[in-house]
């Protein structure tokens, strides 16, 4: 049983380029609701989740959708996404940091993945509490190759020793914020000295 507070970051600022079409997939209407709302509703049902941060491309549009579906703004924050996924997650962390109720574990999950089994999330959160971080993986099915600098195939990776990482992923809040601080510092130093 989870006995600590958990925050959730749902990146949802993507453009949907791979899907094609004029509407980013987070806004696709599925059975009367935008796709991202299903993940929000699933996490809202978990009693240990105190804050959900939606990181989006259009704050006003998403706030309007949340109002339309009577979603509590005290529990769901909406912040602007950044140019990249990792910067958007950092924006979500900053929003969680400003909340009065500190969280012990933060879950990062793609908002466009609507199926969030509560039992698996609880298992994940407890594992992050115990080990610092946790995530789900699955065996690779496709062949993965590594290319050389010349653009030619160098070798095939052994599928038995590699896995595909999936969301949700969970981290102790202080570990994830520390990691993002180090990445930011590395990026700044690289920019300054190159």
TrEMBL record:
One of its GO terms (molecular function) is D-ribitol-5-phosphate cytidylyltransferase activity. SUPFAM superfamilies: Nucleotide-diphospho-sugar transferases (SSF53448). GO terms for biological process: isoprenoid biosynthetic process; protein O-linked glycosylation via mannose. Pfam families: IspD. The keyword Nucleotidyltransferase applies. GO terms for cellular component: cytosol. Keywords: Nucleotidyltransferase, Transferase. The keyword Nucleotidyltransferase applies. Signal peptide: none annotated. Belongs to the IspD/TarI cytidylyltransferase family. IspD subfamily. PANTHER family: D-RIBITOL-5-PHOSPHATE CYTIDYLYLTRANSFERASE (PTHR43015). This is 2-C-methyl-D-erythritol 4-phosphate cytidylyltransferase. It comes from Timema cristinae.
